[in-house]
Amino acid sequence: MPGLTILFHPDTQRVGERAELREVASEGGVTLARRQLEFSPPGGGSSRPLGDPYISRRPIRFAASRFGGLRIDCVDSGTRVVANDDWVHCDRVFLGVEVERGIVLLLSNRVVLLLHFLSSPPSEELPRFDLVGESSPIIRLRRELRRIAADSMPVLLRGEFGTGKRSIARAIHRFGRRRERTFVELTCTGDGSSLPISELLARAAGGTLFLGRVERMPADAQAELLEALERAGGESRGSAGQEDVRLVAATDWTSSSRIRAEEPSGPLLERLAEGVIELPSLRKRRDDVGRLLIHFLRQELANIDAGHCLDDPGPYAQPWLPPQLVAHLVAYDWPANVCQLQQVVHRLVVGNHKNEQVVYGPEIDQLLERTARPSDQGFYDEGSEKHPVRREPSEISEIELLTALRSHHWQIEPTAAQLAISQETLFSLIEKYSTSTKRMQGSRRGMRPF
To answer: Beta partners for 116?
Structure first.
């Protein structure tokens, strides 16, 4: 179901509230105004409209369009609407795939919403496992963690760099039967000759052994570890004994990794393939960015006794956190995922906690560039080499091409990077799909809407 999630509101306690657009296919569509359309926390709670005086009483209208798309009509509204960094001066139609990705709406430079397809709240109460978020991927992850936390079988956590694999491994240990025993972790370096397997198992006896970057472990070391685990009864499904060890491993290789012809292999990896948990990237849970942003800000500001920065400034004062900055951060693709977001928040707080408002300018993009780390979607870190992924042109549909061009405001370089193709291939695809290409080929550095 299409809906709206609050990404930022001057009252930061409201971040994460949602409103369903149930009647969007009806003749009149759904209207949003200062006192129209109720927002409530996921899973239930008191509901209320946006209520901000900068939002007009004259409504914005949302209506269904063809092929699962949505139309935003601002003709009669006094609210200034910016959608994905473009001003909507009258109306705009968005494709279904664009709504699926999430459309960032900045209202009157005051409130930030995400127009997207809402996930249904879970029918049963799930442990939170210290995870921040209410998106569909996070609900699925909580359900998976509940299933395996009390088990003893080995687990492989698979996800891009920065998706929180170490934190998930600790949650599995903390919420399982081994919580009172030791949690031991080691990051594999690729040199198995010095891997202290017997020492690791002795330290983790009865507890959990976490191996990061397990794809770097040589096959002979994998075989040695697997044999030792089997001897200790580490694969038994019963209660933890004095000597057995539960193995939780992690890899940056995902199901969509295409760096090499074959993924790393070995007896341990083959065994771990029976219990894989996929961790979602941050760009797949865009509605959680606002929740995570405020969560990390509260933590950082509390550490320096500056929590007042997030207080509601009142109806006629500007909030410390600029809504334009929030919209920019939510639209960003976060190549290093939650890890990068946390670093960005830390630096924003250090540099701005004494200011009346966070400075929003070119330095933000510089900060994002400095904190970005290659994810396995585009790179594989091995020594100092970086191996870019290249997709086949036949894999990219016309709708995906158009969506990527729109999201990057028709700029060639970031569009090609998102699609994982060269700029020349991008121009070839535009020629293939568009009869208006000749009007757009005046510059190979950038493009504008035609």
So the answer is: 3
Asked if residue 414 has pLDDT above 50, the reply is: yes
Helices within 108-218 (DSSP H only):
136-149, 165-174, 197-203
On the CB side of 86, CA atoms within 13 Å amount to 16
- Whole-number Å distance between alpha carbons of 165 and 251: 8
How far is the C-alpha of 7 from the C-alpha of 112, rounded, in Å?
A: 5
> Which tokens hold the place of 81?
């609407």
Residue 233, pLDDT above cutoff 70: no
Residue whose tokens read 């606002």 = 290
pTM: 0.79
Q: Which of 254, 296, 290, 247 is nearest to 272 (CA)?
A: 247
Q: How far is it, in rounded angstroms, from Cα 403 to Cα 29?
A: 24
State pLDDT tens for residues 202-213.
888 889 999 998
The Cα-based distances of 212 to 105, 121, 182, 313, 330 in angstroms read 38, 32, 17, 44, 29
- Total residues found in the chain within this entry: 450
Q: 229: part of which helix (H) or strand (E)?
A: helix 219-232
Token pair of 351 as six digits: 């540099």
The tokens for 400 are: 């995906």
Return the structure tokens found at 91. 């109306």
Give the separation between CA 170 and CA 178, rounded to whole angstroms. Answer: 11
Reference 307, options 325, 295, 322, 324; nearest CA is 295
Cβ 79 vs Cβ 52: under 8 Å: no
